[in-house]
Design a protein that fits this description.
The protein is α+β, with helices and mostly antiparallel strands and about 150 residues long. It has three helices and six strands.
């Protein structure tokens, strides 16, 4: 017995994945306003720099509060976010999801380059508003990090 999936569900899943990818693309292109537009006005954005911590390092509750967070990426020479698997659970015009990401950050200090890699998990709540999917909540959890010099 095979489960069928409706064309609406396929379209919603694709649109949510495109939303997730747009977030990473905007981050890597330093498009803070584009990145902010992916969130609801009353969004909830939470960051846990330590996956074992019960207290977030950042807990924001409005889209406009995201500006300095996204602008902070400007301190890096370059970033690259590699998105991994996503699990999405749809419920009409709402959805939840988990996405894995390896975020690479290149810095230059005193003429030397280094790379900071963070293994991230995003736990998301999505809403469909006016036919478009947005982040209503994004919880970023850092599982591990590594920093090393770049030779060459």
């Amino acid at each position: 017995m095979q489960n069928s999936i409706s064309s609406t569900e396929v379209a919603d899943r694709l649109a949510i994945r495109q939303l997730i990818e747009a977030y990473a693309h905007c981050a890597d292109r330093r498009d803070a306003s584009g990145q902010m537009a992916l969130f609801t006005p009353d969004t909830h954005f939470i960051v846990f720099m330590d996956a074992k911590s019960t207290r977030p390092e950042l807990d924001l509750r409005r889209r406009e509060d995201l500006a300095p967070v996204f602008a902070d990426l400007n301190k890096y020479e370059a970033t690259t976010h590699f998105l991994g698997q996503s699990t999405i659970v749809l419920d009409q015009n709402q959805a939840t999801g988990e996405t894995y990401c390896l975020a690479h950050h290149i810095s230059v200090s005193e003429g030397k380059r280094s790379i900071f890699v963070a293994s991230l998990r995003y736990y998301d709540v999505f809403v469909k508003a006016d036919g478009h999917w947005l982040f209503a909540e994004r919880k970023l959890i850092v599982d591990w990090t590594e920093t090393r010099q770049i030779v060459g």
